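Hi P.,

Sorry for the delay on this. The queue was packed all week, but I finally got your sequence through. Input first:
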Amino acid sequence: MQSHAIKECKIFEKWGLLFLKHKANLIIFSSLLILSMTLQSASANTGSTQIVPQWIKHSAAWWAGGKISDDDFINGMRFLIENRILPATQITGEIKGNQIPDSIKRIAYSWSQNKLPDSEFLRGIEYLIKNGIMELDNHFISKVTRERLLEVSVMNDTKKPVVIIPIFTAAAYEEPGFYTYYHGQCNSSCLTTIIETQEPFSYTASQNAINVLQSLGYDTITDIDVDKNPNILSQYNKVIVLHNEYVTQKEFDAITNHTHVIYLYPNSLYAKINVNYDQHTITLLRGHGFPDKIIANGFGWKFDNSPMEYNTLCDNWSFTGIENGIMLNCYPENHLSYNIPLLKAIKDY
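Then the structure:
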C-alpha cells in the first residue's frame, strides 16, 4: 500500500506535468498567433508585400548558402525579434542540429533573391514552430500577443464552457480497428477495439483543438464522462463538440438535448457504439455502412453534416444554426492554432 506522502507526490507530479504541457501549448499558440497577425497584415496590404526589413535578406541568403550555422541564424532572428525589428515578435528558441528541412532553406534563399514575398518567408518560420523544430521558451511575449490572447481566452470566465474530448473516436481509428474493417482488410472482429485514453491523439481525434482550447482555459471532459453521467453537461452553459464521430446513444441524447452546443467539426455524432467498461472496449453497433451498406448516420440524425468534413481549407468558414446550437462548415483541425476570428466566434457564442 502506498503511503500518504507518496500518493501526494504522484498527484503533484501529475499536475506539474499538466501545467508544463499547457504552458508549452500557450507559448506555441502565442507564437502562431503573432505570426498569423503578421501574415494577415501581409495579405491585406495590396500596395506592397514588404513587411520584413530588406537588409535581413542578406542573413537569410548566408544561412541558405551554408555561410552561417543554424544556431547563428536563430540567434540573429531572436535579436531582431526582441528588438522589434522583425514583425514576428514571439519566435524564440534553438534549432536542434540539422533538423531544418532543406525546403525551408530554399524558401529563405528564394526570398532573399526577391523571388518570394515576405509572407512566404514567415510561413517557413511558422513551419519550424508547428513541427517542434524550433523549441520555445517564455522569455518574451509581446503586449500585443497578450491582448489578442485575452480576446479569445476564457481563463477568467466565471462559468467556463466545456469541450468533449473524442476518446471513442480515437479508439475507432486505431489499427487494426474499424477502418481496417471498412477497407476490407479484416472481418467484423475489428469492429471491437481497445479504448486508448492517453494523449496525444491524432488529426482524426482533434488533438490540435484539444491543445488550443485547453491552453485558452476551456474545461474538458471525455466521451466516457458523458456516457457514464449524461447530466454532467447540464453543469455547463455551452458545450463544444469536436470530431466526436463515434458516440453511445446516451452521449448522443445528452449532447442533442443540451440547448447551447457548438458542433465545431463536421461528421460528429455519426456512428453508434457500445462500451464495455470491464474490457475497456468499444464496439460499432450502427452507422458508417454497418450493419447494412445503406446506413450512413447510425442515429438517423437530420443535422448530419458529414460531407463538409472534406473542406479542410476553411477559407470561407461559417456557422449554421440548428435546433440546439451552431455547426461549422469545415474541418478546422489545422486552423485553430492561428484563426483568431474563429476562436473569437467560439468564445462569443
